[in-house]
Give the backbone structure.
Amino acid sequence: MTISIVGTGYVGLVTGAVYADFGHKVFCIDINAQKIKDLKKGKVPFFEPGLEELVKRSLESKRLKFTSDFESSVPNSRVVFVCVGTPPLEDGSVDLRQLYSATEAVARHLKGQTIIAIKSTVPIGIEVELEKIIHKNSKNHFEIVAVPEFLREGTALEDTLHPDRIVIGARNPGGKSVDVMLDLHKHFSGERIICDLRSAQLVKYAANSLLATKVSFANAVASLSEKIGADAEKVLHGVGLDRRIGRAFLYPGVGYGGSCLPKDVLAFVDVAAKFGYDFGLLKEVDRVNQEQIENFVKKIRQALGGTVEGKMIGILGLSFKPDTDDIREAPAIKIINILLKQKAEIVAYDPVSIPSVKKVFPNQMKFAADPYETAKDADCLAVVTEWNEFRDLDFFKIKKLMRSPVIADGRNIYNAEKIKGMGFVYFGVGR
């Protein structure tokens, strides 16, 4: 099958590379000319384990092509995937400019019968506006289907090939377009859910919002645990053993981040309001998440005598999670912003995210080459992202390097008693 994919971010590029590897002819379209130029050379614009190798293999097979030209790709495609960004606006609603622009560009080049598959996370009912755009710019036959993605950065290839479920939403769930999409997904595992468009759209928002709710619930339990002298890790382990609940996402920390959970929670609140429902539960989920950042900084201040002014804070981990260089809504960026406003000095290390963070803080902070350089002369060493290389550090060496031995474990990756026994002032989250 010939496929076009509009957008070469995480979702579009991973989707394109995987389909090309399965033998389809895939055009990946992006209006960023420099990005296309780099991709033609096999240079992936973000860090994702295994993706660059897959892209290069698909380029060599000539099944994967990168272009900015809709005319050379869309007319020949049976399916066009729309995978552009839908970032949040300041009020929490969704910025749909890229989606509308991409849909219009696709519509102008449609030929024959085409399935337009929306992978972007979109507001409920957006198909009405998209159909208006397409009808205005094309007289060709088309059908919109919703195929929300559920990949996680850092495990995107595995999640694409072996998802828990494949959701396909269509106006006619029993129609030929659904058959085509099922055929296109025949090599993937996961349960198939065939439904109407709005149910498919709602699945994505509901799933991400429930995951965010579990994170905020875990952090609320952690805050209570600190007040009453309980151990949140033990509490949540006991809760998670209930098969109705499970332990996934029930881990206290400095809060969730990334390109999905923060924006989807706020977007879901906004979408619900437009349909006349006040989603107060999710408003509180967002509030708890924001509060975790402030609580973490407050504990650093308390450990350093009530102020961070003039103190050197070492930050370990900058991406919003391990195995990605994505810093969108990363807790580390928010923590650094607060600390800088409170006149702390910052030195930070991350295995892959430093180039991105340098663009955000070009002159306000220093960057280290490894965790030990981060610890040198630091008054506090704060773990914000749980990269594996941080788990087995030489703490005898770190203690000698630090100006004052304070460890702020924002992900609870260390044995508290062991670290304290080595002479450190240690605090985690909910412990």
In short: DSSP finds 16 helices and 14 strands in the chain. The mean pLDDT is 96. Residues 150 and 162 are 11 Å apart (CA to CA).
